[in-house]
Amino acid sequence: MSVLFVTSTSVGSGKTFFSYSLSQCLINQNKIVELIHLVPDQQNDLFDQSYVPDLLPSKIMSVNEFNLSINELDQNKNLIVKVSHHISLDELKTVVQNCQGKIISVLDFSNCVDQIQYLSELGDELCGVVVNFVTKFGESNLTEDIIPSFVKSNISVLATIPENRTLLSLTVQQISDILGARFFNGNDYSNQLVEHYMVGGFGMDPGEMIFNTLDDKAVIVRGDRPDVQMSALSTEMSCFIMTGGLEPIEYVKYEANEEQVPILVVDSNTLDTMDRINEIQNFSKFDHPKKLNVGCELVTDNFNFEVLS
């Protein structure tokens, strides 16, 4: 039996992404995997179930429950234990030592070097770190500064994971909830992911040429612009966000239904709507089957699986 504890030093570093993706990778390798959410004893009954994606079977266990069950665990299993932020360092080290497990810490690329002092306190229980959200233009910083800093501190970098738009995306339903929009049509397709946002308007080039540059997009446009709406519908898209509280004409509704494109209507104008969308990424969660597939690919391509053997 191998027991791997997945931690992070800040909320939103990608602990859920890595725990679930690694579990799926091991399942794909025909390994027996059990995924556990480890929470403090006093919070077991209060744990927010919304933090448990319905993507893989998993269970919630308190520290005390986990310690009591160690001797009963199937020795053929690989345990992936996602550790709550509310578990103290001493408590974590004790439970890891009790089962002879190892720790992998998932770090945000933007502040990962700042976490070295804390990580050093984990001692021999720390297997290494995963640096997540590596930006497109951050490779030189990664190779010239970040990785050497970890090497100098005797901390292994087990993976560097690039930023990925799919993992940062939201579903049409989630966007509707955040914006306070109403569905004009297309409720049946509300689970589609939106990875890009485009604003419809005037331009010298045909609309199809512009909208064709991005797929899986939401097009933000006033509800009284059927010319822009029809141009967008001729390309791959996830939904409309129609502004100004204006509903589209019946023909646009018909074509949107044919293309399975939901239409959201918001009362705010286009500029105010875009301002709100600029912050929408902060609400993204690892909670969609497509995200699990992409996450598994990222871990497969970038993680050093030899440390698990």
Please tell me about this protein's structure:
This protein is α/β, with parallel strands linked by helices and 309 residues long. It folds into two domains: 2-166 and 286-308, Rossmann fold (3-Layer(aba) Sandwich); 170-283, 3-Layer(aba) Sandwich (Udp-n-acetylmuramoylalanyl-d-glutamate--2,6- Diaminopimelate Ligase, Chain: A, domain 1), CATH 3.40.1390. It has eleven helices and 14 strands. The protein has helices at 15-28, 63-69, 89-98, 116-120, 139-152, 172-179, 207-211, 226-233, 250-258, 270-277, 289-302; strands spanning 2-8, 32-39, 58-62, 77-83, 102-108, 126-134, 157-162, 170-171, 182-185, 193-194, 196-199, 217-222, 239-243, 263-265. A seven-stranded parallel beta sheet has the order 3-2-4-1-5-6-7, sandwiched between helices. The chain has a five-stranded mixed beta sheet with strand order 9-14-13-12-11, with helices on both faces. Helix 5 links the parallel strand 6 and strand 7 (157-162). Helix 1 (15-28) crosses helix 11 (289-302). The termini are close together.
Provide a compact summary of the structure.
The chain has 309 residues and is of the alpha/beta class.
